[in-house]
């Protein structure tokens, strides 16, 4: 297997042998001024559709760089389908949730406004940039989209019923998430509440929904960001069929 290239960039352009891709100003600055790369240096590029490719810097200007796409390093793969829904929290811990969700394989990221959510505006561009950066560094072949923030009621009203929803519910005496997860390949999602927790009426309503299961994450009350990372890691560990079955 070829050695991974240290620098990976997400590009929103078709990738094929011989393609020339013009990088944006921010990426050009990163490569030229921060990483000190020059014409002829190789990087890896991916676009979430065509796998990962080796590309060489061909034209290096002050504000733009063009790379020549050469050969495919990895085929595109289908990722286990898991969304993370969470009530946005204040400050850098919000960015942390998006970064960790991306590293832990979230296929979509949904900020959800619950009754006790104190953050009403979410900077989607900033969160999407964090997701892109995390995907680049963790060697993912896709970047999860960060969707518009919507109210919990709206999200539940328009829920795709074939997707199973695990609602992290503290202090409810519900089954541990580890017992509730099923490894049957059904698309899933995890919902994490705000710093103040869900209102009891919200949890009562969620518990009535056929596609939702209330689950616990242990006896301690976790911060929302910890709960998001713990639940994502648990799902990734337990929801995949055993490796032997996947190879068969
Ligand atoms: N203020 C709430 C309280 O004291 O009960 C705690 C809310 S907690 C900081 C934020 C969110 O993380 C919760 O709404 C829940 O989704 C999740 N969470 C935290 N600890 C949990 C646990 N032990 N089991 C299940 N979910 C948990």
Summarize the structure.
With 248 residues, the protein is an alpha/beta fold. Helices cover 31% and strands 23% of the residues. The protein has two domains: 5-74, Hypothetical PUA domain-like, domain 1 (Ribosomal Protein L25, Chain P, Beta Barrel); 82-240, SPOUT methyltransferase, trefoil knot domain (Alpha/beta knot, 3-Layer(aba) Sandwich), CATH 3.40.1280.10.
Word description of this protein:
- This protein has two domains: about 5-75, Hypothetical PUA domain-like, domain 1 (Ribosomal Protein L25, Chain P, Beta Barrel), CATH 2.40.240; about 80-240, SPOUT methyltransferase, trefoil knot domain (Alpha/beta knot).
- It is about 30% helix and about 25% strand.
- The chain is built from eight helices and eleven strands.
- It has a six-stranded parallel β-sheet, sandwiched between helices. It has a five-stranded mixed β-sheet with strand order 1-3-4-5-2.
- Helix 2 crosses helix 3 (about 125-140) and helix 2 runs parallel beside helix 7 (about 225-240).
- S-adenosylmethionine (SAM) binds near residues 169, 197, 198 and 218.
Write the layout of secondary structure elements.
Blueprint lengths: L7 E3 L9 E4 L1 H10 L7 E5 L5 E9 L4 E10 L7 E5 L5 H12 L4 E6 L10 H15 L11 E2 H6 L6 E5 L8 H4 L7 E5 L7 H9 L3 E4 L8 H15 L4 H5 L1
Parallel strand pairs: 1-3, 6-7, 6-10, 7-8, 9-10, 9-11
Antiparallel strand pairs: 2-5, 3-4, 4-5
Helix pairs in contact: 2-3, 2-7
Bound molecules: S-adenosylmethionine.
